[in-house]
Amino acid sequence: MEPIQGYIGYELIQAFRAHHLRAEKELGLLGLRPSQELILLQLWEQEGLSQSLLAERMKVEQSTMSVMLRRMEKAGFIERRQDLQDARISRIYLTQKGRELESRIRAIWEELEHQTLAGLTMAEQVLLRRLLQQVRTNLL
What's the whole-model pTM score? Predict the structure, then answer.
């Protein structure tokens, strides 16, 4: 039997952890946890999304999204407003504090991308992206 370190899954997890730890460190300086910036990225593109749509787009459970939004609301990055047509729906909007993070978060992601791809040729980067997309498709 092959040692666990020989499996591709092991390498994927190790790469994810390294990326996650780096993101956690940088985002923590802004008062964010990893994945919260992904919510902000969605809202920078389109404000007023419902909690359920955000959960669907990020492929997380409603309860997970609820916890993430509660933390972000408490930190002052977002606010929830009831839908004018349907009071059962909360819509999520950025606060000024949330809007002000966009350039800093995009810079963090640019730097993470640079570090992640360091030493890879353009052809290798394209191949890596295609292979990772295929792996994700295989697992869904």
Answer: 0.81
